[in-house]
């Protein structure tokens, strides 16, 4: 009687949760459907099942009920997991395909939004052979494409990408061609050579709001020109190790509309504190990442206390981990939802988590160091995971934790917007899969090993939005487990590194070819 009542309820709840299609509409979930059909057979057929079969079926049903019970209470108020799906974005309009191809015919590339980058016209190194010699034609290619680019019904950014040895030509003339783009919002340079003519051309771009210059030619003369582009709202500059005079560097902080500043610059040690004190007066900043030399805790505390940081939403601190005074001062940036810092001692990390959970519970993105530093273990790890569970809006989490056991994940199963998190020794097995299945927004997983088999087949489809899995020990990726992983409805990429593996990963070529929709990203190849 209990089974007859539960199964219809489960079916209804699955439909409400929007994942019924996951369980019954794909070839990759046939085994789950088979389990359900076996359960709904007429009562007399039960006598043919062994006691062990009934125990397994009962356990599977109990686990599925746990997953549903975890998800259902939040369904009515939960924002759709794919709310940011850009399938309706203007650049996906089929009517633009012919125009896109015309732009490509000019030896330019289209960069569709991904990895946080906007729609861009990618100017690599267009070239042609003249009298047997290779010649670049950056300016010619862009000049011909400008009339086509102006037909696009949305804003564009131009992205110049040179060569790592910077053997590509100076871009002065080419940058002048950018001025003809009517809907220009940004320009980005990577590994480029920019002469004085180029910086003067940038200064004349009246509509320029977004400028990034990374791993490219930069000096004080260039910075003088950049500091006069009054319309800039987003400025990312990487100067490397060349010393820059403070009197020039501080001019950047006078830009009237600057909201997003990322600045890697080498200042004399005596000028680091004055620079941060002037930076404290930039009350319009929303996103901040400044690395201008070694900075002390007290300087950053004073930065928070002397300035108005009501708008500051994202802060990357490169050089120091916040200790007690600085951890206490973060409350002075009440809109802070993203914080990226180096790793610290276990006591420091726990104290900071406690303060953030108390003062800034709206955090969406937390990153403490990387996976090579000190990790929280045992009871400290449990406490950290419990504290993370209090950030109800958390989407991404990188806190160095060694997972004590699968049940320690329970606090973060309540985070219905969590898309990714890190635990050093997270293995995919029966116990962890049961916890992960309760996280409806998960999009990517970083795991050490795969330790599951057919006994977990009913749980895998509940990882309904996982698109990518990175595996630290790829020897655990077998043909059989690959077949089971394809039950994840949105899985599109498996990542691993096989440089240190003496024997090939036990994943046959036949198994890979069987699933052409899966991308295998292998760093050792």
For the structure shown, list the relevant keywords.
disordered N terminus, alpha/beta, globular, Leucine Rich repeats (2 copies), 525 residues, LRR_dom_sf
Description:
There is one protein chain. The chain is an alpha/beta fold and 525 residues long. The chain has a domain at 2-77. Helix content is 32%, strand content 17%. It is built from 18 helices and 21 strands. Strands 1-2-5-6-7-8-9-10-11-12-13-14-15 form a 13-stranded mixed beta sheet, with helices on one face. A four-stranded parallel beta sheet has the order 17-19-20-21, with no helix packed on it. A two-stranded antiparallel sheet has the order 3-4. Helix 17 (479-485) links the parallel strand 19 and strand 20 (493-496). Helix 11 packs parallel to helix 12 and helix 14 packs parallel to helix 15 (378-388). The protein is globular, with a radius of gyration of 27 Å. The model is unreliable at 1-47 and 74-83 (pLDDT under 50).
